[in-house]
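Electron transport complex subunit RnfE, pasting as requested.
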Amino acid sequence: MSTLISNFDEFMDGLWKQNPIFVMMLGMCPTLAVTVSAVNSISMGLATTFVLTASCLLISILRHIIPKEVRIASFIVIIATFVTVVDYSIQAISLELYDALGAYIKLIVANCILLGRAEAHAARMPPVPATLNAFGMGLGFTLGLLAIGGVREIFGAGKLFGIALFGPHFQPWVVMVLPPGGFFVLAGWLILFSGIRANKQRKIEAELALKGAKA
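Structure tokens follow.
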């Protein structure tokens, strides 16, 4: 039971507690560049999740074999291998999606989330918790991209996943499909989550103060 709880905590740590976008502020380049639509956001998120999960699993398995002197170079080679798999897979599945994501597919290898998880977690943990943490982190990244891409598509095109929402008279907010739109939406989400965390902290402090007064 304790192992299951520990593994669940590893998963939730990456998914929510250390969300790469809204908490750790990592991977900002693809976050702002490809989130002009929900489809692009999910595609980039799932691609990153696959690379992150697969590379962390392999790195964890090989953690006692890879010499410390070349660990960073080894991690990059492993990550780049899985990025190449994703790159060719997306190209084979949909050329339209491949063109929409552009060079950012290949640039997954330079995403600091991957190397950070490899160095700080996968290289120090057994395969199961390392993989669950990486999978949770990838899903957290995907949800973050979707939260931004969905808002930008709704207000920038009046659609969500290509489905019209507001009818023919809707006037799109052009700024949402431009680079500044990514900054505006990201800032809005950060303000929201910051407010939620602050409110939660105030409740905890109030409960502690009440318990202290009763004591």
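Note for the archive: Residues 2-161+172-214 form one domain.
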